[in-house]
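Annual report, structural modelling task.

Input specification for the zinc ion complex:
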Amino acid sequence: MAIKAYGAFAADKPLQAMDITRRAVGPHDVQIEIAYCGVCHSDLHTVRSEWEGTIFPCVPGHEIVGRVSAVGGQVSRFKEGEVVGVGCMVGSCKHCHACDEGLEQYCEHGFTGTYNAPIEDAPGYTLGGYSQRIVVNDNFVLKIRHPEEQLAAVAPLLCAGITTYSPLRHWNTGPGKKVGIVGIGGLGHMGVKLAHAMGAHTVAFTTSEAKRQDALDLGADEVVVSRNPEEMAKHAGSFDFILNTVAASHNLDVFTALLKRDGTLCLVGVPEHPHPAPTVGTLIFGRKAIAGSLIGGIAETQEMLDFCAEHGIVADIEMIDIAQIDEAYDRMQRSDVKYRFVIDSASLAKV
Ligand code: NAP
Ligand code: ZN
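The model returned the following structure:
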């Protein structure tokens, strides 16, 4: 049966309504009626072909929360009516070293992204969460334990939450650690909340003077406007870990200079154009590292959702109707969102 979706036919075209189909529910499948879908900067990078390899028509969306509407005969963990989530992955090989370790995002055969990834179902590649319904293998469906009234604000946890939680955990964020979060957007505002909840001394770096008070309200102990060299200099050589979520290319040296000996600057932003090459001397004199991190595995995503439910953590959101999506992209491009747009999927019925 055809369902409503919203997507782009080309990089230079606005998104528009389209009809798509989902596969019949197989033995291991969970069919979900989508209630909300967060809007990630990766959606914008993909739809506007800022990264190579977008397959059109493209239906983005990988921060999905909804209700189970059917399950396959072999599915025992989920039942009809239950509230569930789907993040950036809907499949992986499940037999390589990475998958064995629960690190499906690093699957040696390539994980299957929730959109823009090749699959056998029509039309031959995945279509994401800007749609009324999705059918997903039960291994890639997450339990949601937040109260019902928070569900829209839970959606962004499925990408922005896990993409910041995973590196914060991997680099042992906790009491006694000084942790920086660079770029207070969708990912960054979750990074601030999570680093604070993990007990680290959390410093928010923003280019936007207007976000100074907000960052404190989100849980930062200190805020630094990164365009201000004197403010930056006060923190030289003092950080254990800095998580950089910025979606545009910029000078990384100003952040490696703030690391302690053996500190790490972890990049999660994937800008359209490369960053200028970092200065090697700053890294060598201090055995500092620049690293990267990709979303998080399924087990860790569940751990993050449960951690957030336990600590009362959700995203700060602005709800939109699907018809406002292009305007939302333009505002996200200008860093003008507090702090994540979430699509009310009920609005798809009206297009
Ligand atoms: P977003 O909401 O647009 O936030 C990015 C933030 O970066 C902005 O709010 C802004 O914060 C800052 N910024 C933007 N342009 C800047 C510039 N020219 N110079 C300095 N700072 C700038 O985007 P998002 O959804 O959080 O995604 C961030 C990036 O992570 C994207 O590239 C996305 O594709 C990527 N991503 C990666 C993964 C992964 O697994 N690694 C997962 C999801 C997303 P301030 O106003 O505070 O400066
Ligand atoms: Zn994302």
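Residues 298-311 form the longest helix (14 residues).
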